[in-house]
Amino acid sequence: MAAGRGRRGVLPGFGLAMGFTLTYLSVIVLIPMSTLVWKSAGLTWAQFWHTATGPRELAAYRLSFAAALAAAAVNGVFGLLLAWVLERYAFFGKRLIDVLVDLPFALPTAVAGISLASIYARDGWLGRWLEPAGIHVAFTPLGVMVALTFVGLPFVVRTVQPVLRDLSPEIEEAAATLGAGRAQTFLRVLLPELVPAAATGVVLAFARALGEYGSVIFIAGNMPMRSEITPLLIMIKLEEYDYAGATAIALVFLVASFSLLLLINVLSWRRGGARGVAA
Amino acid sequence: MRRRRGGAPVPWPRRGAAAGAAAAPQAARSRHLGESPAVRWLLIGLALGFLVLFLFVPLLAVFAQAFAEGLAAFAAAVRQPYTLAAIQLTLATAGIAVPLNVLFGLAAAWVVTHFRFAGKNLLITLIDLPFSVSPVVSGVIFVLLFGARGVLGPLLAEHGIKIIFALPGLVLATTFVTSPLVARELIPLMQAQGDEEEQAAITLGASGWRTFWHISLPKMRWGLLYGVVLCNARAMGEFGAVSVVSGHIQGATTTMPLQVEILYNDYQFAAAFAVSSLLALLALATLVVKSWIGRHHT
Question: A13, A50, A277, B175 — which has fewest CB within 10 A?
Fold first, then answer.
């Protein structure tokens, strides 16, 4: 809000900083990204449709979408729980845990990928218990979901935590004074306040999971039609020098990502708006 | 547009988010406002169970398997020539990409926070854009542009310039993926700090550079350091985008994460985890610095 309080001209450097920013963005981001659109403009609509909606492609979209959605949902529930526990309760090791929640942001995805693959392998730490029980994680869509859950873990925690921290205790006190039980207070008073933040976190986790590659490919087994995610399919097309195929799928994926970006902005805008009214 | 804490939520937590509120609230809370101890411990247990399963076990597994064949095997794996080359390449790539993104972050944050202009929200969206692109797609766009069959491929071949399957491609892809990180850290910080001091300095006759070096930079130094640390962690750990442009030539174009992939697919599990453990240490160090800055300098 404090931005730009001074009229342009008080502080120097607008031309230089703006020039550098725009040049940099053009060279690193905009020109490379426009290549994708340009390359796909070289395809006819029929070609594009044919390559982007083949059975293998559709199976990959389905898996990517469903696994990312499931992972985001798991993270929605447990993210809310984690944020609650970290903000409201005192227990041993809380501060360390609060720091480690961000690990999926900092740990290279390939490292997470091979670690998860080895844990859920037949002779792995968890696989040796799960496999005899008939739960197959490695090389199945379930494995994809597990990896995506790891990747998206911090988002909901980090969007809900500040809201929970800023919640004024008066509303809970008012609810209790008016005779609401604890569960009722949570469901009817607290949860409605937390849901918008949690929803933003879920969409962020979903968007991140949709494009994720490194942590998934090791545990997925990558069987076409069964456990092959969309980013991997793009990679395979590229390695086969099928540029048209790679371009078409990448474009479909990019459009999906941008729609999500739009949704995130709308969500945070509505959240900001609602908050403004409440304040 | 109203935004909480100075910015839209981004796929990276804001500084201080991890600082954690101390135990203050519930001590003051009267008893009927809190949950019964049984409920409390049940919730803590569920939350910790989830974390153990999805976070701690994978992290421990990296180190356990790195040393599964003993310290000597670990040392030998890390000292393999290909691994050493990968470490060198990772340092070189991050060594170029991070400073570039620091310059970009400083310039972008300066423009966005200190001036009014049409299209500011569009500019902020463009800065964030790489966050919403799948890492693989990020790599693909550079192959489409500079690859042998790419738009500029023939031209580059004519002049003998190699970008894809070489260091420049790795640097470009890494720079693309990590470009929003420093800017994203600095913009909310500089917005919160305002520019009164800078205005005073300029009014008193200091030059623009002098103001920047002596006022702006010291003011934002912790935020900048934090941005650099994050950007570096992501640059060194980037996998998807780099994997597309690398060509996987061992000893020449494989960064550490790519070397991990090659070793793992080659069934050299202990070696793969040895290299992984170095990257995991980097991640842990990043988190330590992050929480330290969050606790002492916000």
Answer: A277
Whether A211 sits inside 8 A of B133 (CB atoms) is yes
Whether A238 sits inside 8 A of B140 (CB atoms) is yes
Chain A residues inside the 8 Å CB shell of B1: 269, 272
pLDDT, position B32: 57
- The two three-digit tokens of residue A188, written as one number: 């009817």
C-alpha–C-alpha distance, residues B55 and A153, integer Å: 9
Q: What does the domain layout of chain A look like in residue ranges?
A: 45-278
The verdict on B157 touching A (C-beta cutoff 8 Å) is: no
* pLDDT, tens only, B268-290: 999 999 999 999 999 999 999 99
State the pLDDT at residue A8.
56
> Does the structure show a pLDDT above 90 at A277?
no
- Which pTM does this prediction carry? 0.88
Task: Tokens for B120, please give them.
Answer: 């500011």
- In the stretch 184-223 of chain B, residues with CB closer than 8 A to chain A read 191-195, 198-199, 202, 207-208, 211-212
Write out the DSSP string of B10-79: -SSPPTTTTS---SHHHHHS-GGGS--HHHHHHHHHHHHHHHIIIIIHHHHHHHHHHTTTHHHHHHHHHT
Residue B82 touches partner A, C-beta closer than 8 Å? no
Q: How far is CA A8 from CA A39, A72, A279, B212, B263, in A?
A: 40, 43, 31, 17, 55
| Residue A9 pLDDT | 60
CB contact under 8 A, A109 and B272: no
Per 3-state DSSP, what percentage of chain B is helix, strand, and coil (rounded to 5)? Answer: 75, 0, 25
Q: State the count of interchain CB pairs (< 8 A) between A and B.
A: 357
Can you give the pLDDT at residue A170? 86
**How confident is the model over A55-102, as pLDDT tens digits?**
999 999 999 999 999 999 999 999 999 999 999 999 999 999 999 999
- According to CATH, the topology of domain A45-278 is MetI-like fold (1.10.3720)
Q: From the first residue on, what is the mean pLDDT of each consecutive set of 10 residues in chain B (298 residues)?
A: 39 41 46 78 95 96 94 93 96 98 97 92 91 93 91 91 94 97 94 92 92 94 94 96 92 95 94 97 95 83
Q: Shortest Cα distance from A60 to chain B (angstroms)?
A: 15
Q: What is the DSSP string of chain A?
A: --TT-SPTTSSS-HHHHHHHHHHHHIIIIIHHHHHHHHHHHTS-HHHHHHHHTSHHHHHHHHHHHHHHHHHHHHHHHHHHHHHHHHHH---TTHHHHHHHTTHHHHS-HHHHHHHHHHHSSTTSTTHHHHTTTT---TTSHHHHHHHHHHHHHHHHHHHHHHHHHHS-HHHHHHHHHTT--HHHIIIIIIHHHHHHHHHHHHHHHHHHHHH--HHHHHHH---TTTS--HHHHHHHHHHTT-HHHHHHHHHHHHHHHHHHHHHHHHHHHHHHHHHHHH-
pLDDT band (50, 70, 90) for residue A11: confident
Chain A residues 11-40 with CB within 8 Å of chain B: 11-14, 16-18, 20-21, 24-25, 28-33, 35-36, 38-39
